[in-house]
Amino acid sequence: MAKAKSSSPKKSRPKKSGPKKSESSAPDANLLGDLMKWAKAAGADAADALYVNGESISVAQRMGAREKLESSEGRDLGLRVFVGQRQAFVSSTDFAPASLRILAQRAVDMARAVPEDPVCGIAPEELLATKWPDLDLYEKKRPTTKSLLALAAEAEDAARSVRGVTNSEGAEASWGRTSFVLAASNGFSGAYRRSGYSLSCAVLAGEGTAMERDYEWSSAIHFDDLMAAARIGRNAGKFAVRRLNPRKAQSARVPVVYDRRVSSGLIGHLAGAINGRAVARGTSFLKDKMGAKVFADGIRILDNPLRKRGLGSRPFDAEGLSTRRYAVIDDGVLTTWLLDLAAARQLGLKPTGHAARGTSGPPSPTTSNFYLENGEATVDELISDIKSGLFITDMIGFGVNGVTGDYSRGASGFWIEKGKLAWPVSGITVAGNLKGMFLNMTPANDLQFKGSTNAPTVRIEGMTVAGS
Question: How far apart are CA 369 and CA 335, in angstroms?
């Protein structure tokens, strides 16, 4: 495997206003096809190319004053070539035909010089996507800088108006859109566009050494799906104030409840453990659990790349394969790995259409819209029988061993007494092993889609809490 990069400077500069611009557009329809021909003429047996073109605006306000205003535009093209069982990658922002001819020749020369990779190779034609649905991933409207600044101001003003809030880390609003075009010498050609908004706010409550920080955020493909700015601000303020005057918890083995703000991290650990590359390398704690019960009865975890307006949605994967909805965990049983072509070949399985890639490297498996389905209980019902336990609202550190499943992370939140949230706690550590944690997990019914990986509030029995 080899890679190189050739570039001309991308445009990236602060702007004082947001003039309307033309939409991001794909290159000439024949350009990627020509690039495939030039790669073949240079000696490649096969090739594929990914084109990415994007623009973004980001603004921020802190303590009532504008703090940041940035705008960027850029485009990039990545070429992958195969010579026998060897591959190489090159990328460039110079789109002149003469430059791309040189790029193709350079890629082939690099591929001839690297060791063979027995699992590399382009997709066979019978696996290629030939049609795909409209997933509503693009909003044509381009916001003005002024409108984004107004969103950030509304969010921060709402947060600072909450009684007890004494300082602010600011509010930030951003927008972007990106075009993707993938073409390959096996005949695949596909393109789609994606837009997105995000808004966040973080503030502090209290005074001196007794200050506490918290936040709220929202992301969406379409502006209409974004959480209201005032609500984001109020939530950030309320979350910070309720954390004031925390106590230390006594070390104990108790039920632990993960608020939906942090429970997605647990599902993210599962995603890493069922990544086909990790399984093929033998570095996953679930490497021998295919077809086995790894969660409690009734638990379903889905990966759905075809969810309309989903933050992780994609109509085809980065190797041109069709995407589809998978019940990765069905009634507690592990049903599949996440596989790109290389991982599938290593494991002797069929690819699952989970390949993702940038312009300067190979594809690798990843999730799309990955989420734990709702349970039946409300959050109040989930904690109602806990005599003593922990409700986590924030976590720090990444003490997770992907090979063994051992888990230890810093946390803060609220102590549970007699089925109610009693007082805030901080400076504690929660520990266990993900194998046992998954088997003892119970979800609530408050699933909310805020990112590409989501989960409702969950309860896990018998975790170790280390406090004072």
Answer: 17
Burial 434-448 (b: 16+ CB within 10 A, else e): bbebbbbbbbbebbe
Q: Token pair 């504008």 is at which residue? A: 66
Q: Is 320 left (phi over 0), alpha (psi -120 to 50) or beta?
A: left
pLDDT of 25 reads 44
State which residues of the chain have pLDDT below 70.
Answer: 1-29, 468
Residue 242 lies in a domain: no
pLDDT the model gives residue 12 = 39
Contact 405, 285 (CB under 8 A): yes
Structure token pair of residue 399: 């003490």
Residues 195 and 339 in one domain: no
Nearest residue to 410 via CA among 418, 422, 400, 401: 400
Residue-level pLDDT at 4? 57
Q: Which domain holds residue 437?
A: 247-468
Q: What's the pLDDT score for residue 51?
A: 94
327 exposure class (CB count in 10 Å sphere: 0-12, 13-18, 19+): middle
Distance between CA atoms of 338 and 293, rounded to whole angstroms? 18
| 401 lies in some domain | yes
Report the C-alpha gap between 279 and 277 in whole angstroms: 5
Say if strands 441-443 and 458-466 run parallel, antiparallel, or are unpaired.
Answer: antiparallel
Amino acid 191 reads: A
Classify residue 248 by its DSSP letter. Answer: P
According to DSSP, the residues that pair with 80 across neighbouring strands are 48, 89
Question: Are 323 and 460 in the same domain?
Answer: yes
